[in-house]
Each structure stands twice: as C-alpha cells, then as structure tokens.
Amino acid sequence: MDDVASQFLTANEPFLRLGVALLLGALIGIERGWVAREQKSGERIAGIRTHALVGLLGGIAALLSETVSDWAFPLIFVAVAAISLVAWWAKLAEQHDYSITGLVGLLLTFCFGAVAVSIDLALAAAGAVITAVILDNKHEIHSLLNKLQAHELDAGLKLLLITVVMLPLLPNRGLGPGEVLNPYEIWWMVVMIATISFVGYFAVRLGGAEKGILFTGLFAGLSSSTALTLHFARMSRKSQDIEAILAAGILLACGTMFPRILIYAAVISPGLLPQLLLPVTVMGIMLYLPALYLWRHHRQALRVDSSTPIQNPLELRTALLFGALLAVIMLLGEWLREWLGTAGIYLLSATSGIADVDAITLSLTRMSLERIDPSTAVLAIIIAASVNNLMKAGLAAGLGTRPLGLQVAMPMVLSMMAGLGTVLAM
C-alpha cells in the first residue's frame, strides 16, 4: 500500500507542486482581497483570483525553464512585472496611492510558485505565509515604527553590525599565550550578552512602569541589575512608603542574574550545567522568595511611575570594552592557573565579580571546556555571583534608606551562604 502511494506521488509530483503553487498564491490573494473587499469588482489590481493564477504561472514558468528554455522564467517574470506596473500606474492616476507593497507581493507570489515547483515546497510555503502575515499587519508594523526611538533603532543596527558583519570575519582559532584567545568565540560571547541586554531593555520598555516595580525589576535583571539597584536605592529616599516594594524589585533584578548564568552554561559548556544547576537554582530561589514575600505584604502601596533605569539598549563602545574585558580575564585566568593553580581562579573570580559577573562567568564556562576542572569553574562562578550581589547590597545600603538596605542585604547574604554551602556539599 505504501509503495502504491509512493509511486502515485512520484508520478504526479509536477501536478501536486503546481497545486501547491496555486494554493500559495490564493493564500496571499485572500489577504489582499480582504483588504480591498470594499472596492467594486474590477477596481482592484489583484485579488484572490489574480494572485492564485500568478502563483500557478510562476510554477509553470519554472517547469518551462527546466524543459524548454532557460529564458522562460526570466521572460515571464519580466512580463508579469510589466503588466503589474501598467496596472499600478493606471491606479495611481486615480487614487494617488504611491505604495508599491501590493506590487511587490504579487511578484513574490510569482516567485513562490516557482520555488514550490523547482526548489522546495516547505521553503515556498514558509515564504508565502510570512508574506501574508507582513501584508496583514500593516497598521501594527507602522504603529511599532512610530513608537521606536532613534537611539533604539541605532542600537538594533549596531547589534546587527556586531553579529552579521563582524562575527563572520573573525578567525575561529586560538591565539596568544597558550592559545587561550579565540577571537570568534570571544566576540560570539559579546554578541550573546549584548542580545540579552537588548531583549531586557525592550522588556522593560514595553512593560515598564505600567506593570509596576515588580515587573520592571524582573526584566531589568536581563539588562542591568546594577543600574536598577542604583535607581531604586535613590528612589527609596524620596518614596519611603514603598521601600519594601523597591527592595523586592532589587532582589528580583539580582535574582535574574542566575537564570542568565544557566543560559551561558547551556550554550557554551552544556557539560557544566548539571553541576551548576543546583547551587545556582538555590541562590536564585533565596532571592526570589523574599522578593515575593515583600511584594505580597506591601502590594497595596502606590505604584510608582518611574523611568526605565537603562539609558541605551546597546552601545558599541560598551560591547568593545566587554570584549576586551573577556580577553583580559581569560589571559589572567590562564596566568593565575599556572602560577597559583585553583586558588588563582578563585581570586580572579572574587575580584572580577566586584565589577561584573557576566564577563567572568562567560570566561569560566569557556575555560571549563579545556583548561580547568568543571567543579573549579562552578565554585568560581558562585564566588563571582556572590561577590557581585554583595556589592549591590552595599550600594542599596549606602545609597538607599536603612530599611531598604536591610531588606536587600539579608537575602543576599543568605543566598551567598546557601550557594557556597551547596557547592561545597556536592
């Protein structure tokens, strides 16, 4: 039975592919026809019938190019484009609508029909569905563009620059002392942390103050928990009636550092994840639980319309400095490992954790693949995270009110003790 079905499909494959080309054209045509449903018959340049036929024509053009002449497809494509331009020009004289989106969609429909017949059905279907979605969400896309700020667009383009342009150009091999510096891998880690910061910024930008301090604290941890700690600590001196809620936001932001650590490990060194999962989870829970407790018992306090504590989602200078910091840490790690052994790694983790936990975490996960024992890497990461959180607790106590400092510092200390105790007990 299966052989018969297989033979049937093989024998009728051209007909089936042409049928798919017709259906993909109809799909785009349905969206175009729905948009122009108020217009009378004959006033639309292309609706469901035209798009369906253009998709079928694209498939036939591809078949003719394979069996008759290589010129068949380009000549028919030019003919379709010319007819479409004439119709668009005639419509322009009456409606003064300069948009060529519909014209581009029609030409894409022709190409999707050709792809379905000659290249790949799944690729053609995916392209047609994406095209229909883009065409259908005109107002949503324009609304999003209107809300986008200049520095956010600049940041997005810079993220593409360091990802699509710079990353493929870097050599993927070890350089420097002990060949510990791999430019491609270092920059790839820069891209990863920049992407997480970018996503975190827009999570706060879209949800932000409307969702309250709890939501802001949770997602600001993806971008800059230190910036949020400074912001909320200063705010506590002006709004002492919501100190507990501000403390909850700080704890949530600092706790979000631990899921980030697990993401780094899962992507860079999956073998490190089983040893890292328990202590990191324990430390995160020790911050999340007090934060939720504070929120639950003080949620009646007035929500504060605070500005987002992150100024720019991505700065190219910051990314370059982060890459340099990674390289320095990896060199220092190799030098301290040779000079002091395991103690040198722990010393490096403690000192690096004062300023930033991402760079040392990325460096240690990378080093655990070849140069240091996984258990050493796990303990060093926990040390760096503990020092970093204690530093932020000090900022909260020094810049904020006394109650805020106590509500932040106590869970931080307990989290550190729980994490170190879990690692040592393993």
SSE diagram, text form:
Layout (H helix, E strand, L loop, with lengths): L1 H10 L1 H23 L12 H20 L4 H24 L5 H18 L2 H16 L1 H10 L2 H17 L16 H25 L4 H9 L4 H14 L4 H13 L1 H12 L4 H26 L17 H25 L1 H14 L2 H10 L6 H26 L2 H24 L1
Helix pairs in contact: 2-3, 2-5, 2-6, 3-4, 3-5, 4-5, 5-6, 8-9, 9-10, 9-15, 10-12, 11-12, 11-18, 12-14, 12-19, 13-14, 13-17, 14-18, 14-19, 15-16, 15-17, 16-18, 17-18, 18-19
What does this protein look like?
The protein is mainly α. It contains 19 helices and no strands. The chain has two domains: 2-143, no CATH class; 154-425, no CATH class. The protein starts with a helix and ends with a helix. Mean pLDDT is 77; it is low at 302-309. Residues 18-143 form the MgtC/SapB/SrpB/YhiD N-terminal domain.
SSE sequence, one letter per element: HHHHHHHHHHHHHHHHHHH
How would a textbook summarize the main sheet?
none
Kindly estimate the percentage of residues that lie in beta strands according to DSSP: under 5%
> Which structural class is indicated by helix and strand composition?
mainly alpha
Number of helices: 19
Radius of gyration: 29 Å
Relative helix content: over 70%
Rounded mean pLDDT score: 77
Return residue spans where pLDDT drops below 50 for at least 5 consecutive residues. Answer: 302-309
State the separation between the terminal residues, measured CA to CA.
57 Å
Number of strands: 0
Kindly give the count of domains: 2
| Global outline | elongated
